[in-house]
Structures
1.
Amino acid sequence: MFKAIIFDLDNTLFESTELVKRARVEASGALINAGLPARSSEEVYKKLSKIVLEYGSNYPKHFSRLCREYGIKSKPEIIAAGMVAYHNVKISQLHLFPKANEILMELAKSDTRLALITTGNPIKQWEKIIRLNIKQYFDFISVLDDKKKEDKIPEYKRFMRKFGLRPDEVLCVGDRPDQEIYFGNKLGMKTVRILQGRHKDEKPKEKLCKATYAIRDFEELKKHL
Amino acid sequence: MFKAIIFDLDNTLFESTELVKRARVEASGALINAGLPARSSEEVYKKLSKIVLEYGSNYPKHFSRLCREYGIKSKPEIIAAGMVAYHNVKISQLHLFPKANEILMELAKSDTRLALITTGNPIKQWEKIIRLNIKQYFDFISVLDDKKKEDKIPEYKRFMRKFGLRPDEVLCVGDRPDQEIYFGNKLGMKTVRILQGRHKDEKPKEKLCKATYAIRDFEELKKHL
């Protein structure tokens, strides 16, 4: 039995990669409907994904850039159409992985200490936590700014200090071999890698990136608690 | 019979003032739940309304200001809670006035030329047009930036030029005595004032601010077409 579990958020508690993809596909269609002179929504989707890769996901002017790529002036009519379509998907299709709610609830009722430690734009990450309605399950929530990704280890340590935990009493759950798994292993925790999202097929770069257990979905987590 | 009708958007085609109020009330409660140290949501609502009045409705940091007013550092957890509550109301409760859809549809099927000329943040105004799903009814849509409010007359003229209309063939519908009503009258149009929203009880400042007709709700518009 572990005394505590540290969870990552995106692609660990919910399907983030697919959700973003669906939102971008929907936005691409809406942009064309609103007047973007593109040949197909697949083409727009590809260009959009390239822009996000280049400028980062928190850059606020993806759609304006897209207009420029198509040689037109950025029009509010087009930008708003893309935004509405994107947000409609991101809001209406944001759900926890199957069984995640039940498992978190069960753990929260037990003596296990639960931490949610995630990186990203703090307001956007909190928006997800609020919309997923999961704040109440955790004893410790920490959202680290994208720019300080290397700071996850100090946060893991802060959590352990706060609740008087040793690393061997903690299970660390995440989807990224070189993030949660690496950090957890480095501190001497047991680690669980969820094979979901865009890191699903990523090979571990070194021994510390290899998780103690690998599971295909959240439900399998039960086996390792 | 009028050959054309110019519509304003907020408080003319939908109830904007009440919607914003409900969104702010909801946000105020959510901010307290998320940790804003306030005595009551009424108190938060009042402070928030004052901030919006002072900094304008398109200022992006209303909730951060609010945190500062309560002597705490702006936390992403609190900001996100306010934003989610605010947007949930603004999106789920955005509806056209009763009968507005039927009347616009009927007019669009007739020979009457329809214009939608509104002021505000262009992307936010377009977001409303898209979410209300009314773009298809209009022959002419123009969103003027807040800063150029005095430019509504040139837009009215541009619409008339485009469709070869004389002012006496145009009906101008809006909720503001000193905006749509004044501009329409000044150009020699017939004007309809909808008594809705925060200008409902406003007395006309001068003769040109007095509408040809005043109606309580959109349905009554039929009488004057």
2.
Amino acid sequence: MGMNILVAHGGGPTAVINSSLQGVVEAARDSGKADKIYAARFGAEGILKGDLIDLTQVPASTIQKLAHTPASAIGSCRRKLTDADYPTVIETLKQYGINCFFYNGGNDSMDTCNKVSKLAQKEGLDLRVIGIPKTMDNDLDVTDHCPGFGSAARYAAESACELALDASALPIHVVVLELMGRNAGWVTAASALAARATNCEVLTYLPEVLIDEDRMLADIEKAWAKGRGVLVAVSEGLCGLDGKSLASTGLVDGFGHAIPGGVGQHVTDILIRRLNIKSRAEKPGLLGRASIPYLSRVDREEAYAVGRKAVEAALSGETDRMVAIEAHRGEKYSFDLFLTPLSQVANVEKKFPLEWIVNGNRIDDKFFDYAMPLMMDKMPDYAILR
Amino acid sequence: MGMNILVAHGGGPTAVINSSLQGVVEAARDSGKADKIYAARFGAEGILKGDLIDLTQVPASTIQKLAHTPASAIGSCRRKLTDADYPTVIETLKQYGINCFFYNGGNDSMDTCNKVSKLAQKEGLDLRVIGIPKTMDNDLDVTDHCPGFGSAARYAAESACELALDASALPIHVVVLELMGRNAGWVTAASALAARATNCEVLTYLPEVLIDEDRMLADIEKAWAKGRGVLVAVSEGLCGLDGKSLASTGLVDGFGHAIPGGVGQHVTDILIRRLNIKSRAEKPGLLGRASIPYLSRVDREEAYAVGRKAVEAALSGETDRMVAIEAHRGEKYSFDLFLTPLSQVANVEKKFPLEWIVNGNRIDDKFFDYAMPLMMDKMPDYAILR
């Protein structure tokens, strides 16, 4: 008699969350121990409705396509489970005879994982619960970094280089690039690669530092005066000295998080109005987590590996753990995986180290020592003939 | 005694304009007939200042990097030459003893080319002038399509697919994607690939059709009600029934063109305010013409080939011509190049065929018969398990 496994996605997708799903399904098949492989349709929503997708018979060739399918192939949701919801979750697990539950998400999802596990134990269920880390924001604790971050960082870094080249080849405006990452500046920091790979002036603003608009404008004006083009990279979550979002929409998502918006456009507006400098704002938004052509090879390999590891851990009897990554930044990058208690990562947010932010708008090389192997195999190498 | 050649870029760069430059330089070197190879620093600005870059001795390995360098490696500008400027242009051509002049740009630039040529003839200069086509907007006449379009179209198409997958995997908001193309909808049309390659509802609005906002909102509401996620792709140049931009910035560029802006955000705003549907707008903007990972292989090959062809034509005595592309859409795509009089393409704008727009927001398969071979080798093939 084999095991029935269930995998679910929580929160925003990444470019490689489907690679983790591929790892789960292929490890379960390879183990020979899985009777049924289920996925929750639209994450917690599917679990609450008892709406599971049976992946047991899906052809191997379809599963392989997950490697280049962005977003979530099984659907996700932003619903945060309340205490009233957990009994319904347990009902679904019982109904389908689930023995192993894998929840692929960020720190909210690890909290969910932990609560499901505790309740299942109380109810006497034979359930093993393993968290699979995922977040482009890179704000999960304990793990060196999160699957999803490397690809989002590459997107930010390489897009910033490309915009910087455009901005300096046709220096008729300051180009502002707004990047995702509400509270953590990990992804936006990667845009500072443009300061290293191009001859454009690049200023990078992370949400960890409150913004003094007068100083920001003065710094941009000084950079603009050099005549080599200016790229200003801003996190969507930038706040002013009063701690309020530079450009809030006033909206709140299902987890109760405020939805920021329009920070890039706001910076563009003040450049035009206050300095009379022509400017335009670009906001790739969700493309920063969905783009397959900018996917990082290492990120995909790690996302696949954490999915496999979760299944192997559960089948060998582990529970209440999240898979985490240990990175080896030698001449050639490599990684190991280990397990960490869910309670250590639930609801903890890892911020960008303040000491890596130089003068409020430059990023220290230490960040790139950390991030480069996660996002790309080598530095972009452009021909700039001017 | 060899020839001195000058190449210049005009207007906005594309992902492959540097491939055309590579073609020019390599063809000039291969010919053995070029003494000096100059490039104008920042296009017409450099020509007017007599500020040329001497590329004659630049290593071949640097020239090869142009194939993956976005924007313009020699710089471009948006300055439209006036009658008062042309004598200065002729001075620079005389000063450097230029025999062949290549201007790489859109229909504005072909007009410039044509005027330079006419004046040079009047002044008795031995000058051959060949235009190299370039515009992501694809609005040049005579040529089947323009170098730069294929990559911009792939960017729009594949980004739209990726956003559509994200929008349908986590259907908490209508996702609006704003794409470049002021007057011509060629690039925005490519986003309709998402209606074919994903299971998301996709509505596509081109600038060729005036927008009835009430009808647009009703169509989006109907699509949203299906619960499978909605992607709305809009051209930056959309106008309302009154013929005015849906969201104008009131700014004008150096060619006197109005700068549109914020159409995507405008659609998002009316969805939230009038229908109470959560929505977010993404605007990759200049990334749509600068992205190297989304570059089209065919586009790069053609951009390189038109650069080479321009040099070969000039060296064989041709002048007053633009290189144009003849496409063969057989089982395997191929192309030929031919020369067309500059006067036939100067200031002519090729619009998107109205008969390819279905019900105001869908794109006919005929467009994809035309565009697919230009942008990608095969359809994206995603795993969608929901």
